[in-house]
């Protein structure tokens, strides 16, 4: 309890936090790798669509949605559930849209939600 910040009660309850992910719009073209250029030159295939998914980081935990193949306007309608003590000691939620790739996933966009802006006082 010595490590708890001022104002945080030493006795905290467990709570579930639900993050609902609906959709994304207007994602950029992402397939600009060397292999994509080789494929285009050899077989004429030019797929520059993204394979997006959403990754959420909250209180040291990670969750993610399913991957929507070849989509600029993916529709998920999924929720990610975190179990954490309430009130949480973290101050924000990190939401990141990523492009799934066989070698290395690439971040398309990142947004942080300040928990103080979406919660009631106390």
TrEMBL record:
Signal peptide stretch: none
Domain of life: Eukaryota
Membrane topology: Single-pass membrane protein
One term under GO cellular component: synaptic vesicle membrane
Major subcellular site: membrane
Gene3D superfamilies given in the database record: C2 domain (2.60.40.150)
Protein known as: OTOF protein
Organism lineage string: Eukaryota, Metazoa, Chordata, Craniata, Vertebrata
Gene: Otof_3
């Amino acid at each position: 309890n010595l490590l708890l910040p001022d104002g945080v009660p030493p006795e905290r309850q467990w709570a579930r936090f639900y993050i609902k992910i609906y959709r994304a719009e207007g994602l950029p073209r992402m397939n600009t790798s060397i292999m994509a250029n080789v494929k285009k030159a050899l077989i004429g295939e030019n797929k520059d669509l993204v394979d997006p998914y959403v990754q959420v980081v909250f209180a040291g935990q990670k969750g993610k949605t399913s991957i929507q193949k070849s989509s600029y306007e993916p529709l998920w309608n999924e929720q990610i559930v975190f179990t954490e003590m309430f009130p949480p000691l973290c101050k924000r939620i990190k939401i990141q849209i990523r492009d799934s790739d066989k070698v290395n996933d690439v971040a398309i966009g990142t947004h942080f939600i300040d928990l103080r802006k979406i919660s009631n006082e106390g």
